[in-house]
């Protein structure tokens, strides 16, 4: 009987050790662990709003529902160089200081590349847009619900007409 009690206690202890890092997360930091980028919770929320403006929720889930802002952060952290990361963070800092109507105007201006837009702001928007759309197209929702996938080489159609090429 003592053995069962010891096993229970060890399992509870192991569960507590697994959950401990999430409880000790610094307040105000991004919810995804990043090696190279230092993103605050406010900046993460702004990024979520911006990605939702790019892919809004309709009859399909939007960018916030699919957590594409976290995908963008992880891709930038892992796959982009320090110069691109710095440009992205400068653009994110700039956009974070804007009020919501100004953010919408920024997205509109960057999408049509207005001449008065700062180059770093445009580069930030391009990186955000590319990664957001890429994340959406590779999301579990799109790959399982919207794309009809068939095992390679696909179905066999024996009645397909073949034209002779001469």
Written overview of the protein:
This protein has 166 residues and is mostly helical. The chain has helices at 2-23, 41-54, 68-79, 82-96, 100-112, 119-137, 140-146.
According to DSSP, the number of beta strands is: 0
Per DSSP, what share of the residues sits in E-state strands of 2 or more residues? Answer: under 5%
Order of helices and strands: HHHHHHH
Instruction: Provide the helix percentage.
Output: 55-70%
Taking Cα atoms only, what radius of gyration do you get, to the nearest Å?
Answer: 23 Å
Structural class: mainly alpha
Shape call: flat
The number of helical runs is: 7
Low-confidence stretches: none
The N- and C-terminal alpha carbons lie at a distance of 85 Å
Strand and helix map with partners:
Blueprint: H1 2-23, H2 41-54, H3 68-79, H4 82-96, H5 100-112, H6 119-137, H7 140-146
List keywords for this structure.
single chain, 166 residues, mainly alpha, flat
What would a concise description of this structure say?
The protein has 166 residues and is mainly alpha-helical. It has helices spanning 2-23, 41-54, 68-79, 82-96, 100-112, 119-137, 140-146.
């Amino acid at each position: 009987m003592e053995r069962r009690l010891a096993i229970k206690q060890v399992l509870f202890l192991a569960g507590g050790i697994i959950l401990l890092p999430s409880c000790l997360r610094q307040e105000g930091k991004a919810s995804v662990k990043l090696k190279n980028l230092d993103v605050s919770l406010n900046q993460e929320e702004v990024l979520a709003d911006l990605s939702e403006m790019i892919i809004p929720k309709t009859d399909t889930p939007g960018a916030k529902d699919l957590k594409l802002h976290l995908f963008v952060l992880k891709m930038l952290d892992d796959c982009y160089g320090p110069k691109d990361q710095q440009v992205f963070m400068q653009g994110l800092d700039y956009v974070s200081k804007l009020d919501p109507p100004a953010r919408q105007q920024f997205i509109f201006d960057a999408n049509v590349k207005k001449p008065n837009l700062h180059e770093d702001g445009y580069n930030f928007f391009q990186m955000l847009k590319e990664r957001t759309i890429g994340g959406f197209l590779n999301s579990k929702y799109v790959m399982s619900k919207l794309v009809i996938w068939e095992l390679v080489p696909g179905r066999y159609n024996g009645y397909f007409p073949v034209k002779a090429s001469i």
